[in-house]
Design a protein that fits this description.
Elements (H helix, E strand, L loop, with lengths): L6 E2 L5 E2 L2 H5 L23 H17 L4 H13 L3 H14 L4 H13 L3 H8 L10 H13 L3 H14 L4 H13 L3 H13 L5 H13 L3 H8 L5 H17 L1 H6 L1 H4 L7 H6 L9
Antiparallel strand pairs: 1-2
């Protein structure tokens, strides 16, 4: 059974930070026109998502490389896990507009999804001006650093993103997972609790909290968190799957050393970056 979290095992424990790559955008409805410069919200229904992708594919075929058509089509492809196609679409847009920050940021996201981390890292460094960093793309840079096992650098990116846009549940969730990967489970739990309590936190944030709770041995509480988004029997199966993974894998057990060593639960830096404030639009 696949884990309901953003962590995975593949010889070396890594992170798939989908939240960081998605951003939190809420724009107007899709129309047939490409003259309106906007990105459109992704449908949550599978059938609607396929229809959305088909609609943008037709527009993209008529206007290859056009900025917002490319971005919308690539986002749909990523949601459908067609990562190589999404990267190719955004590469074409980047060739056409090599200095457009938004194009480069979305190209970087597509490259991360496709697993091309080195190129993604290079592209993302050019996705905003040095004096005006973009919190969303900073968070994606954090995701890249985490997947390259540079957790301290990743946490720096997330903290910078939170300074620009406090109380972003997606960024806090990724920061919590990064703490977990660096064996700071109590700090990871506190950070993920902050994320889960914020307006706009979705099921993926709560799933990440449930994962960390399970890693700490708090299986009953992990089930309770999971039950907010799924039936009780499904929540129990997911937590049981995590428990089995921990029992069978040295890499998973190694993460638990943070809580067993009594790591500090102080989260002053995180709280300073995420003081109560209206959630910033993504």
């Amino acid at each position: 059974m696949p884990l309901p979290s953003a962590l995975r095992l593949g010889g070396v424990l890594g992170v798939v930070l989908g939240l960081a790559l998605g951003g939190c955008r809420d724009f107007s409805d899709v129309t047939g026109s490409i003259s309106r410069q906007t990105t459109a919200p992704l449908p949550t229904n599978t059938a609607a998502l396929h229809a959305y992708a088909d609609r943008w594919e037709k527009l993209y075929s008529a206007h290859p490389g056009e900025k917002y058509t490319s971005i919308n089509y690539a986002r749909a492809l990523r949601a459908l896990t067609r990562y190589k196609e999404a990267a190719a679409v955004m590469q074409a847009a980047a060739v056409k507009a090599p200095k457009d920050y938004e194009v480069l940021g979305e190209y970087g996201k597509a490259l991360v999804d496709d697993g091309d981390l080195q190129q993604a890292r290079d592209v993302l460094t050019r996705s905003y001006p040095p004096d005006r960093p973009n919190w969303d793309y900073l968070s994606v840079q954090g995701a890249v650093a985490d997947r390259l096992d540079d957790h301290a650098r990743a946490q720096g990116f997330y903290q910078e993103a939170l300074k620009i846009s406090p109380n972003q549940p997606a960024v806090l969730s990724n920061l919590g997972l990064s703490y977990a990967l660096s064996k700071q489970l109590p700090l990871a739990e506190d950070t993920l609790r902050q994320a889960a309590a914020l307006p706009g936190a979705d099921s993926r944030v709560r799933q990440n909290l449930a994962l960390v709770l399970a890693l700490e041995g708090k299986f009953d509480e992990a089930e309770q968190v999971s039950q907010r988004d799924m039936p009780a029997d499904a929540a129990a199966r997911n937590v049981a799957a995590i428990r089995q993974m921990i029992a069978q894998s040295d890499s998973w057990r190694a993460l638990q050393s943070g809580s067993k060593q009594g790591g500090s639960r102080r989260v002053a830096r995180t709280r300073a970056a995420a003081r109560p404030a209206p959630p910033a639009p993504g």
